[in-house]
């Protein structure tokens, strides 16, 4: 079995192919996750820029996007624990999705309430909470998807449906929010996007209970909302306290907006992964009953290293490189376009039908390719089209201000992003052990975006040194850097599970 097909495949009579209702639901869940992501990343960057926040500080706000890379910290909790009320009736996975929906709508409402950005620490607090609950939604939905549809043939269409929903959210967030902000202000934009992001909640609440579970629907809904409110308040309090301690510590040691803290933060984030790699000689010999393999906290991650052994290091290098170019470009592409002389409305129109159509085609072709072609071949094509999308911004910078030119650059970027994203999601899903779907997928996707998002936080400083041209040339070149690793990936074999 190759690395790209490492997931266990159930017996033929147990395989359930995605039906229309499943694809529609996952399209809607993708839509719900895509909306808030753009509201604490690209849209927030433009909002802060409109309020006069310096480019270097805009780069620091990109570190809010680090939270999804750290989801491995709390992902095991979603595999182990139920949500009070919700899970009793709808099951573990849907229970967490519903709680995350409550968190998303309240955090985005708070961002609407503080839309003047008078206090950047307060803006950062609610942006972090929005990122946390968005990530929690993705962890729960991904675990549910991998459990329901474990094979490559099943993953292709369900991932495409999920990413179609996610890309459609770009119209509402990337385009609709900007058009709303240009005409009605940032508060209105955030409030209406919050309402749209909440759409899956009533649909999930109306669904039948999970097999073997019962009780009153209204009782479960009421207790879930009450319990969820307590959890939301506690999460806000903990986040505020941690943020206060971190900001106070940074101020105490002289760190300010001009300080380069990237190496230090990157070093801290890498510690657990370096420790795991250093422990490989012991991990690969550990029996099924060893505490490190049975632990709730680290067992799912140890299992990944146990199955792939030293090849796990190569896999980690590959996944950290594959989407780096797109992540680097994400946070600063819109500020660059704005600096070229385009208005919010022009950017919004480009991020509307043009971006949606291009990304939908990219996602569709990527999802189709993984069901018809070898996975590693599809990964190579994805890297090339992603690089072309990044180079498109360099081309745009040397054209006269024209919406037609903007549409071309946007289409190239979104096609490449959608194609590479669809292929990559399927690849990572098939590396996961179905015994630990939520935690291991969170681990892989978290590590995949850790280094890129760390570097994105220093993007403003990088532009100051090499300019926008140099920055987007670099991001495009990085997209191609994963291709030389593909021949080595083709030789990787996963160990059979001995548990």
Description:
The protein is globular, with a radius of gyration of 22 Å. The longest helix has 36 residues, at 217-252. The protein starts with 19 loop residues before the first helix and ends in a 10-residue tail after the last helix. The chain has one domain: MFS general substrate transporter like domains (Growth Hormone, Chain: A, Up-down Bundle), CATH 1.20.1250.20. The protein has 23 helices and no strands. It is mainly α. Helix 18 (344-372) packs parallel to helix 20 (403-431). Helix content is 76%, strand content 0%. It is a multi-pass membrane protein. It comes from Sphingomonas hankookensis. This is Permease.
Please name the fourth-level CATH homologous superfamily: MFS general substrate transporter like domains
Residues in β-strands, percent: under 5%
Task: State Rg.
Answer: 22 Å
Question: Uncertain spans, ≥5 residues at pLDDT below 50?
Answer: 1-16
Give the structural class: mainly alpha
What is CATH's topology name? Growth Hormone, Chain: A
What's the number of helices? 23
Total count of domains = 1
């Amino acid at each position: 079995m190759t690395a790209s097909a490492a997931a266990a495949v159930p017996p033929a009579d147990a395989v359930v192919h995605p039906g229309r209702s499943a694809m529609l639901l996952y399209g809607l869940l993708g839509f719900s996750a895509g909306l808030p992501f753009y509201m604490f990343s690209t849209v927030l960057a433009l909002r802060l820029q409109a309020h006069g926040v310096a480019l270097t500080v805009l780069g620091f706000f990109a570190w809010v996007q680090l939270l999804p890379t750290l989801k491995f910290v709390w992902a095991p909790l979603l595999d182990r624990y139920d949500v009070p009320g919700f899970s009793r009736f709808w099951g573990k996975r849907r229970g967490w999705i519903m709680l995350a929906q409550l968190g998303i709508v309240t955090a985005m409402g708070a961002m609407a309430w503080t839309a003047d950005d008078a206090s950047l620490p307060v803006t950062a607090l609610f942006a972090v909470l929005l990122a946390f609950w968005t990530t929690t939604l993705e962890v729960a939905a991904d675990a549910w998807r991998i459990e329901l549809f474990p094979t490559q043939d099943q993953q292709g269409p369900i991932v495409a449906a999920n990413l179609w929903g996610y890309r459609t959210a770009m119209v509402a967030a990337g385009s609709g929010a900007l058009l709303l902000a240009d005409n009605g202000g940032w508060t209105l934009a955030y409030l209406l996007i919050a309402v749209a992001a909440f759409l899956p909640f009533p649909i999930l609440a109306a669904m039948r209970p999970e097999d073997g579970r019962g009780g009153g629907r209204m009782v479960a809904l009421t207790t879930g909302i009450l319990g969820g409110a307590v959890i939301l308040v506690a999460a806000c309090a903990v986040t505020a306290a941690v943020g206060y301690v971190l900001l106070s510590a940074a101020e105490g040691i002289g760190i300010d907006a001009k300080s380069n803290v990237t190496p230090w933060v990157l070093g801290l984030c890498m510690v657990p992964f370096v420790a795991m790699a250093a422990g490989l000689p012991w991990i690969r010999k550990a029996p099924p009953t060893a505490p490190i393999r049975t632990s709730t906290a680290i067992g799912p991650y140890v299992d990944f290293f146990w199955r792939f052994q030293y090849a796990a290091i190569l896999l980690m290098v590959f996944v950290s490189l594959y989407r780096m170019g797109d992540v680097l470009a994400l946070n600063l592409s819109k500020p660059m376009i704005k600096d070229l002389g385009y208005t919010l409305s022009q950017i919004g129109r480009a991020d509307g039908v043009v971006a949606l159509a291009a990304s939908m085609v990219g996602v569709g072709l990527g999802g189709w390719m993984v069901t018809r072609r070898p996975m590693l071949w599809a990964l190579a094509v994805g890297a090339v089209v992603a690089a072309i999308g990044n180079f498109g911004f360099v081309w745009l910078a040397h054209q006269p201000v024209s919406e037609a030119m903007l549409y071309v650059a946007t289409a190239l970027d979104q096609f490449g992003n959608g194609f590479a994203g669809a292929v990559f999601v399927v690849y990572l899903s098939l590396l996961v052990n179905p015994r630990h779907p939520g935690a291991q997928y969170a681990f892989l996707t978290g590590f995949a975006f850790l280094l890129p998002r760390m570097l994105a936080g220093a993007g403003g400083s990088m532009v100051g040194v090499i300019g926008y041209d140099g920055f987007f040339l670099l991001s495009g070149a990085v997209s191609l850097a994963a291709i030389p690793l593909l021949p080595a990936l083709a030789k990787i074999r996963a160990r059979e599970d001995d548990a």
